[in-house]
Amino acid sequence: MSVLVVTGTGTEVGKTIVTAAVAAAARAAGRSVAVLKPAQTGVAPGEPGDVAEVRRLAGDAVTGEELARFPEPLAPGTAAARAGLSPVRPPEIAEAAARLAESHDLVLVEGAGGLLVRLDEDGATLADAARLLGAPVLLVAQAGLGTLNTTALTAEALDARGLRCAGVVIGSWPAAPDLAMRCNLADLPEAAGAPLLGAVPEGAGALPPEAFRTAALTWLAPELSGAWDAEGFTAAHR
């Protein structure tokens, strides 16, 4: 896959850290990587956003691009309207991703919030951009109680739009998972209709960048250029 869209079951589920881990693993495999953030919200001009965080963790060799920035921490469409700024629209996202794909082995398009968060006044979403690109979607999910419902709903939304879910990555796996979290390891693939492709430890973003890049390979499955074993991980937490 040359373009991979990264979305979440909601906000604050670990999309940026997962994106950084996927970028780091791909770079370790010798692939050139670009990360595209269509809409950055809640960050003032000049402040580092998600693209800067991905590059900090995965390395400066990762190309970063941000299409639009809106000051208030809201859905992109709402934030753009309140700021009196033009929203970012799916064709613009698809064009930028396709351009980056011409010079990179992998382009990661990181959304804002969940799959169906509105980008503009017409109700366009990240799913529309993924459809224009014909790109698979990597779903970042929470570990605990309630995640099966939001994962299944997102998977249904993808399927209804003819989009392929590449797999699920747990965005924040705690050191001491509770019963629901451990059971979810087996249940998440069924809810998503796609494989479990990784589990990023809670607090991974606080690691020194070099340690993050090395460890990223142990958090992600071979499909994402890592060495993580879903079956073994699940069995170990029964």
UniProtKB/TrEMBL annotation:
Quaternary state and interactors: Homodimer.
Name of the protein described by the UniProt record: ATP-dependent dethiobiotin synthetase BioD
Residues binding substrate: T41
Residues at the active site: K37
UniProt cofactor(s): Mg(2+)
Segments traversing the membrane: none
Root EC class: ligase
Source organism (scientific name): Streptosporangium nondiastaticum
Pathway: Cofactor biosynthesis; biotin biosynthesis; biotin from 7,8-diaminononanoate: step 1/2
Physiological role: Catalyzes a mechanistically unusual reaction, the ATP-dependent insertion of CO2 between the N7 and N8 nitrogen atoms of 7,8-diaminopelargonic acid (DAPA, also called 7,8-diammoniononanoate) to form a ureido ring.
One protein family per Pfam: AAA_26
GO molecular function: ATP binding; dethiobiotin synthase activity; magnesium ion binding
Family per similarity comment: Belongs to the dethiobiotin synthetase family.
InterPro entries according to UniProt: DTB_synth_BioD, P-loop_NTPase
Catalysed reactions, as listed in the record: (7R,8S)-7,8-diammoniononanoate + CO2 + ATP = (4R,5S)-dethiobiotin + ADP + phosphate + 3 H(+)
This enzyme's EC code(s): 6.3.3.3
Positions in coiled-coil regions: none
Keywords: ATP-binding, Biotin biosynthesis, Cytoplasm, Ligase, Magnesium, Metal-binding, Nucleotide-binding
Positions annotated to bind ATP: 12-17, 50, 110-113, 171-172, 201-203
GO CC term, one of those recorded: cytosol
Biological-process GO terms, alphabetical: biotin biosynthetic process
Binding site for Mg(2+): T16, D50, E110
